[in-house]
Write a structure and sequence with these properties.
The protein is of the alpha/beta class. The protein is built from 13 helices and eight strands. The protein folds into three domains: 146 residues, no CATH class; 73 residues, no CATH class; 78 residues, no CATH class.
Length: 316
């Protein structure tokens, strides 16, 4: 796997003065912490469309179920120009081979889910994705997305980091060609990670692979990818992670002494209660996996992320 992680990002959050009033929305977590571990590819859909800085504020307006992009004061309609510009911008971003995208919360163009969509019938605005975000999701439906402010939450941040690395491995798998054997190997190495997010989705993916002979390769890859990233959208929590760790502990039921079992169980419960980081019980399980040659556990990305992922999970 390439060590470079390429993340698209709303340009204003990196300090670029591209907002409608000529200011920025600098996010110091992105610029001072995350930037040490990833390459950022900034984008501002409004500037890319040719809008001035400063400029009149835009609003998304629901016109008979057709969301239009209209200026707040002069009511100038930018919809068609923005669609054409977004297509060019998304082509450019596609060439960058992004591993994820961090969006400006509540922005008209870049909101993840908190963008206001105004009504022409006097109703209160509803919330939804920004105008650019909607096209981004259509063009790259599996690409991990997150709002910048939500990354302050450590559980959400860990979830996003996990997803961008799974997505990177998924794209590298597709580049090798759609071979069922390689998909089975991919699934096997991600089993515990998927289980930590969505136990039901984990079971459904296993069933899908078990029935793979009735699908053509392209169909099963498409279905698997859609189901996988839908499962990963469910947040992995300390409780879910602890359940997976206890499952891993079961692989040593015939080798560990009662004292060792008690020690590991205590470590897992201490993590579950928030008193120690996940790395503590994971390190102990990895120790036993090496000692007792549990190959399946040693292959799990949940327990053994690659170095770049490990660094981001425990240092970002």
């Amino acid at each position: 796997m390439s060590e470079t992680i390429n993340i698209g990002v709303s340009a204003c959050t990196l300090g670029e003065k591209v907002r409608c009033n000529g200011t920025h929305s600098l996010d110091t977590y992105l610029t001072e912490t995350l930037a040490k571990y990833v390459k950022f590819t900034p984008a501002c859909p409004e500037v890319a469309c040719g809008m001035n800085i400063p400029r009149e504020r835009l609003r998304q307006v629901d016109c008979a179920d057709d969301v239009r992009l209209i200026t707040a004061q002069s009511a100038e309609d930018w919809t068609d120009r923005m669609h054409a510009s977004n297509d060019v911008l998304l082509d450019s971003l596609g060439e960058e081979k992004l591993d994820g995208f961090i969006l400006k919360r509540e922005a008209t163009s870049c909101a993840l889910s908190q963008g206001k969509i105004h009504s022409t019938k006097g109703k209160a605005p509803r919330l939804g994705p920004g105008f650019f975000t909607q096209r981004l999701m259509q063009r790259f439906p599996l690409l991990p997305l997150e709002a910048n402010q939500r990354l302050q939450n450590p559980i959400i941040r860990e979830n996003f980091i996990r997803r961008i690395f799974v997505y990177k491995r998924w794209c590298e798998l597709l580049e090798k060609g759609m071979q069922i054997g390689q998909l089975v190997d991919f699934h096997t190495r991600h089993k515990m990670l998927i289980r930590a997010h969505d136990l039901n989705g984990y079971r459904q993916l296993g069933k899908l692979l078990g029935e793979s002979s009735i699908f053509n390769n392209e169909e099963i890859f498409d279905t698997y990818g859609e189901m996988l990233f839908k499962s990963l959208l469910l947040t992995s929590t300390p409780r879910k992670n602890s359940d997976v760790l206890m499952h891993a502990m079961g692989y040593f039921k015939d080798e560990l002494s009662s004292d060792d079992k008690s020690e590991l169980s205590t470590m897992i419960n201490t993590y579950k209660s928030g008193k120690t980081p996940l790395l503590v019980p994971v390190t102990m399980i990895n120790h036993h996996a090496r000692k007792y040659e549990k190959t399946y556990l040693q292959l799990q990305f949940f327990l053994n992320p690659n170095p770049a992922e490990l660094k981001m999970l425990y240092h970002v």
